[in-house]
Design brief:
Blueprint lengths: L1 E6 L2 E16 L1 E16 L1 E3 L2 E15 L7 E14 L5 E12 L4 E15 L2 E12 L3 H5 L1 E3 L4 E3 L7 E13 L5 E12 L3
Antiparallel strand pairs: 1-2, 2-3, 3-5, 4-5, 5-6, 6-7, 7-8, 8-9, 9-12, 10-11, 12-13
Amino acid sequence: WDLKLKTAGLSAHISRRDGKFEVAVARFVTTLFDDEYLTLEYQYQWGDFTLQPGFHWSKIEFTSRFFPERAIQQTRSWYFRGEYQRSEEWRWVLALRNENYDAPEDDKLTYQVVGQYSPDSDTVWRFVVGRANRSPFLLEAFANVETPNQVFKGNGNLELLTSDSVELGYRKKLTKNWSLDLETRFTKRKNYS
């Protein structure tokens, strides 16, 4: 089921899925899963600022012969997004998110800062700096797979993959149907599993 609510700046999204699928490792194996999540956000205008605090919770459970027991991974996060636009030319966005993971047990802050300058309706310059994290996939964290040729054991204490990036971009509308989009990006990642 999937439920979405929205009223006077407040939005909520609650969802639950379950099912099964087959994975081809050594031979086809049926895997059962449950997937649930909840998102709550509130958006309001304060002068030239648009402010949006929120909360997100997700849980996924798998049952399979890949896992020695039922694999459960939960993530909780609090976040805040603020946008400032005093004129048509300039727009600034700041986004902060504190994420709490079960596997590994860790709290991490992610962020993104965006600056955008549009001197006219056909031109946009943008600058973005940010950090993103990725928790281990269920197989990386919980799997216990043995085949005649290999053994793979998951590790629930893997460090989060962290990506720090900087981006500079330029977009120009050349004609009604053509535009030029140039961007350069630098990303540094750490904690590959």
